[in-house]
Amino acid sequence: MDNSTIYTLQFGDDQVVLAQSKEDLEYMYWKLQEEYSKWGLIVNIAKAKCLSLGTNTNHLELDNGDIITGCTEFRCLGSIFTKDRRDTKNIRHTVTQARKIIGALNGVWWSKDITKNQKKMIYNSMVKSVLICGAKTWSLYEDDRGRINVTEMGALRRSARICKLDRKTNECIREKMNVQDKILVEIT
Length: 188
Fold this sequence. Notes:
Shape: elongated
Largest sheet: 3 strands, mixed
Helix content: 40-55%
Radius of gyration: 23 Å
Number of helices: 7
Strand content: 5-15%
Number of strands: 7
Number of domains: 2
Distance between the termini: 23 Å
Order of helices and strands: EEHEEEEEHHHHHH
Structural class: alpha+beta
């Protein structure tokens, strides 16, 4: 994007303003109000939220006395932004979605009538695609890696028709399903 800087994101009736300082945010707020007023719109200050990264600020008081309440996280375009700047909430949400899919397809995974190749195609299109969506931007910690690995192996284990009581290693399951690379290799 040619060293371009994004200052605002718009989606439907939501507006996200990105700023590096209180002064920048105030300036952008006034510019936003100015643009909105041209169209007969107003910023609903009661619904506005402020997420300040790297500070203990819980709200933003504007020069005119308006107060924008603070929040510890917000969701925009499917991503969860948190005050601590970690991607753990995004990863947990993604893993939960993938596990729901795995659970819903439990009958498919254990079926003798569906071939391994068909199960791999279902896994790749329905589970893996959800699990890696947005993953290129994640900062992974060890516990996050563990969650992703457990989810991946849960689907592969069921596809191979191997229950946990069989005490087979992950490598054995990968070999049986003819899956060489871990999903974490694709993500990182």
